[in-house]
Amino acid sequence: MSQVTAVLDLKAPIATWRLWLLRAGYLLLTVGMGTQIIPVFFDHQPATLDEGIVNSMLLAMVILCAVGLRYPLKMLPILFWEIIWKTAWLLTVALPELQSSEIDENTASVAFACALVVIVYAVVPWDYAFRTYVVSKRDA
């Protein structure tokens, strides 16, 4: 069977090592963001409206990534969300500031954290994602 045919085989199994790699990605996100976000909710310091929204969304991300440890393939859309927002921010905010040499210390720090999204790109089983979200028939 050629690689093209294998990619289009909608029922092709995913290798166990790919599932464990995916779980490692969820674990990295859960622990990495969790150690930063969870203490914020126990600190009880007043936050601005924007900070409260961002922190709440990141807490939801941490919780959903923890669920991904058990259901790695079912939680792929949360990784897509992570990939999309970080890549969009890097391209529309950080890159223009970097190109104009106007990047400040805070933006550079966030850009570095967002650039770690390359790890998420690496752990996603793209062949499975393509078969599941692009090639397969839509839900009724």
Radius of gyration: 18 Å
Major beta sheet summary: none
Pairing-aware structural class of the strands and helices?
A: mainly alpha
Number of domains: 1
N-end to C-end Cα span:
30 Å
- Tell me the number of helical segments per DSSP (H or I, 4 or more residues long): 7
What would you say this structure looks like, in words?
Helix content is 77%, strand content 0%. The longest helix has 28 residues, at 16-43. The protein has helices spanning 3-8, 16-43, 49-70, 76-99, 105-115, 117-123, 126-135. The chain is mainly α. α2 (16-43) packs antiparallel against α3 (49-70) and α4 runs antiparallel to α6 (117-123). It is globular. The chain has one domain (15-135). The mean pLDDT is 89. The chain is built from 7 helices and no strands.
Short description:
With 140 residues, the protein is an all-alpha fold. The protein contains 7 helices and no strands.
Give the helix/strand layout.
Layout: H1 3-8, H2 16-43, H3 49-70, H4 76-99, H5 105-115, H6 117-123, H7 126-135
Helix pairs in contact: 2-3, 3-4, 4-5, 4-6
Descriptive key words:
140 residues; mainly alpha; globular; 0% strand
